[in-house]
Specification:
The chain is an alpha/beta fold. Helices cover 43% and strands 17% of the residues. The chain is globular.
Length: 287
Amino acid sequence: MQLMVRTSDGRRLSINDGGHPAGRPVFLLHGTPGSRFGPAPRERVLYHLGVRLITFDRPGYGDSDRLPGRTVSAAAADVRHIADALGIGRFAVVGRSGGAPHALACAALLPDRTTRAAALVSLAPRDAPGLHWFDGMTESNVREYVNAAIGRSRVTATLGRRSRSILADPAASVAEMAGGLPESDRWIVADAGIQDMLVRNFAEGLRSSPDGWVDDVMAFSTGWGFDLGRINTPVKLWHGEDDIFAPVEHTRWLGRHIPDAEVEVERGAAHFGALRVLTRVLSWAVS
């Protein structure tokens, strides 16, 4: 079921409420760029797990209004607004890729409502002490964050061009991306169903503008707005060792700085390996 929720400051957030209607609620936070149509198990799998799955377009993506200057921490308030609107008290949160830091924001800032939080193939904070942030990162991502250091206008210009290219031919953009992936990711993205989902996900997320993508990159390039060391919600961290978009050392760093976090690093897996483990992680989230 698709619906629109308004926040206290009047913004619209585009929501998809699916899975088992009487199941345990889980917010699934999409990657960068992305939308509410990002990777998720099929409805029958969600029914079997007993999961009510809530996804939404982050501000600036799809049909959700932009929140200029947002930080990673802002996601917690949006999740709280959606939960209130849907009559949900407590919930789990799972974030993949660009959604992962936002899931950790919920764990840190909504401790009385977040039962469990999982962060799959996450970045670490840009100012993470002792972490060589760019080591192992693909050139296109490095370029985005270098541009962010130059300024928002530079990021807006470069991601605007990339967004127009993706929208002109989403299928070709997915195929081009797949050509530069590690072997394990190429096998996953070769699936026709995965390709169709990625095409729809990117096309919807960027349909109105590149604003959500720009604001994500800027948010990841500044302070997250919360203290990882104060998280007391159970946290699971998963990463593929061969990831080139968010290098695995980012998750290892998070594991050392989030109290009692469960860290799983899978050899022979990479960024899109998170799609393969998503059902298992959702099962953990509601257990």
